[in-house]
Amino acid sequence: MKKKRITQWLPVIVSVLLAAATLVIYSVVYDEYSAVTYLQVSAAALVPAVFPIIGTVTKREVPIYLGILAAIHIFLASDLGSALGFYSLIPSWDLIMHGFFGLVFAAAAKEFMLRWGGGSMKKGGFYLLIFLSTAGAAALWEVWEFTCDIILDGDAQRVKEAIANGTNPIADTMTDIIITLVGVAVFFIVIFIAKTHGRKQDEKRDSNL
C or N terminus of the chain, fewer CB within 10 Å? Predict the structure, then answer.
């Protein structure tokens, strides 16, 4: 049991090591240092710790794949995307990250809803709640970006950029939310394929009895 608990922390350890490597590269590549970047990368690396902490508090382990997915997303979005400039280097990087976020959040919502009695719901209501929860998370993220833009005078939502280019200033926000929901759709497809494959395996096993 102790070994299993240690295993739960592996995604956190990997996330922290990747963040440390990212900051070393960042300090070497870039002449100007941003305290916000150091803080963002360091704080984001600890996000996967949420899952083993919840497992410890509730005395019921959270599936390790959630920590792995979170660590991957943090590395791609925060380390590569923000710190090392992939958002600027690859125009579609932001959309990919929002789509991946939708998939990760939907998977997490499914696991926690099952813990909180969601398994007793009808399937339609269960998956609808996952969809709405992820849509709400996407909207809250856009509120966070909007708030940060106001406080830090940034342009994470590309409003200033859009106005300067004469394009729709809310296009980036709405596209981000829509792509997040595409990530949810991918999650549903994966669940459908997994269940279909499972049924076929059961039928094949029964036919061999």
Answer: C
